[in-house]
Design a protein that fits this description.
By secondary structure, the chain is an alpha/beta fold. It is built from 7 helices and 8 strands. Helix 1 crosses helix 7.
Length: 252
C-alpha cells in the first residue's frame, strides 16, 4: 500500500533586523591598512540608508566635507568623504579625475565592507565642492559606483560640452548646481540648461554665499533635496516632504 506523506508547512523566516548603529558619528576609513577618508554614520540606524560621497576641493579636508554634508543633507544618509592622503588631517588636493575616481572606489569599498547591512548604494549621491565638483564629470564616468544624483557647489567644469557628455555617460539622473559668486551664475545656468531634452534633469540655484559653505548654502541644500531625490525610496523618511517634479532641465 502506498503511503503519501505531506511535509509540514514551513514558516517564512523573518529577516533579521541589524542592531542599532552606535558609536562615534565620524570615523576613519582605511583600505588595505591605508587611510582613504572618513565616514559619517547615521547613528540610530537599524536598516539600510542611502550613500552620499562628499568630495572636498583643493587644499581642503574630508572632515569639513562630512560636516557640510551633515548640515545640508541631514543625518539620514551615510556620508563617505574620500581623501587623497592617508592622513585625514592633512590638507590635500586632487591630482586628476582618475585619482579621485580611484579614491572614491576605495573609500566606498571600505565603508561597505565595514557596514554591509546598513549602506544602500543603489541610490547614491555625489556631492562635490570647488575642485571636487570641477573634475567630477570625468571622475563619475570612471568610478565603479553608479551615482543617480549629483550636487555641485561652486565648481563649474571648464568644458561644459564635455561635462555634459560625461554626466550623461555616467547615467546621472538629476543634477543640482549651487553657486554663490556672481561671476559663476551665468556658467551654471548654461550648464543646467544644456540638459534640456536629455535623460538628466537639472536645475541651478544661485545665492550670495560666496565660495564656501555657510548657512545660506545649507538652507538651499535642504530646500532642494526633495527635488533632487524625488522618487528614490531609500531617501524617504517619516519626515520627508518629497514632491513630484516633472520639469526636467529646469533652472532658476
Amino acid at each position: 500500500m502506498a503511503v503519501s506523506v505531506s511535509a509540514a508547512p514551513t514558516t517564512p523566516a523573518v529577516p533579521r533586523e541589524p542592531p542599532m548603529l552606535v558609536g562615534d558619528w565620524l570615523q576613519p576609513l582605511d583600505d588595505g591598512g591605508r587611510g582613504v577618508g572618513l565616514v559619517a554614520i547615521p547613528l540610530g540606524a537599524r536598516s539600510k540608508r542611502p550613500l552620499v560621497v562628499a568630495v572636498h576641493g583643493a587644499g581642503s579636508l574630508p572632515g569639513w566635507m562630512c560636516n557640510a554634508a551633515r548640515a545640508g543633507l541631514g543625518t539620514h544618509p551615510f556620508v563617505v568623504c574620500p581623501h587623497s592622503l592617508a592622513d585625514t588631517d592633512a590638507l590635500a588636493s586632487w591630482s586628476s579625475p582618475e585619482q579621485l575616481a580611484a579614491t572614491v572606489d576605495r573609500a566606498v569599498r571600505a565603508a561597505v565592507d565595514r557596514f554591509p547591512e546598513y549602506i544602500d548604494t543603489t541610490e547614491a549621491m555625489y556631492l562635490g565642492h570647488s575642485q571636487g565638483a570641477m573634475i567630477a564629470p570625468v571622475a563619475l564616468s570612471k568610478t565603479s559606483l553608479h551615482f543617480r544624483f549629483a550636487l555641485f557647489f561652486e565648481g563649474l567644469p571648464r568644458d561644459a560640452a564635455s561635462a555634459k557628455a560625461e554626466l550623461l555617460h555616467a547615467h546621472v539622473e538629476r543634477l543640482l548646481l549651487l553657486s554663490g559668486q556672481g561671476g559663476w551664475s551665468h556658467g551654471h545656468d548654461q550648464l543646467a540648461a544644456s540638459f534640456r531634452g536629455t535623460s538628466l534633469a537639472s536645475r541651478h540655484v544661485h545665492g550670495t554665499s560666496g565660495h564656501f559653505f555657510n548657512e545660506e548654502v545649507f538652507a538651499a541644500m535642504r530646500s532642494e533635496l526633495p527635488w533632487l531625490v524625488d522618487g528614490a525610496p531609500a531617501w524617504q523618511t517619516e519626515n520627508s516632504t518629497s514632491r513630484a517634479v516633472t520639469n526636467a532641465g529646469a533652472t532658476r
